[in-house]
Amino acid sequence: MSMREPRALAAGLLLAWAGGAAAAEALQAPRLGRPVDAQEVARWDLSVFPDGRGLPAGRGNAAEGAILFRQHCAACHGAGGRGASAEELAGGTEPLTSPTPDKTIGLYWPYATTVFDFLRRAKPMTAPGTLSADEVYALTAYLLYANGLIGETDEMDARTLPRLRMPNRDGFTGIDATLPPR
Hints:
Distance between the termini: 77 Å
Order of helices and strands: HHEHHHHHE
Helix content: 40-55%
CATH topology of the domain at 47-163: Cytochrome Bc1 Complex, Chain D, domain 2
Strand order of the largest sheet: 1-2
Shape: elongated
Number of helices: 7
CATH architecture of the domain at 47-163: Orthogonal Bundle
Radius of gyration: 27 Å
């Protein structure tokens, strides 16, 4: 092998590598999704904190929420939230220390505001985010009532909801500065 052959081989490899890199640069990622406007982002940019920051204006009570629950929730969660094809939301009796704990709202959830936040983002299952603030407050009130935490006519709103102390409030360890110390 002469001296020129390794140089020619090296030059050829360098050109092949450079050509491949240039070709890779020319490739573009697939164009998935679509651009969103600020109004659409605002519909999903929703955060409700345990202290109530982020709760919208509105109000609702359990009597109003019972009607909405029958319309939007009972098919999966059963009458009174006692469970059907989806988990029970109310009525549990087994504490979290039990071998088979009930993770109902009244036994498991640490903050009432989290119930509101979840309902607003994820329900109804067939059309998430379509309920008005008043409807979400009413459904939240109904679920709190079904768990024996409030009365049927107690009104839930941005002022009253964060004030409700849930039975499992101290059952979680706070990892965020927004959570109270244990």
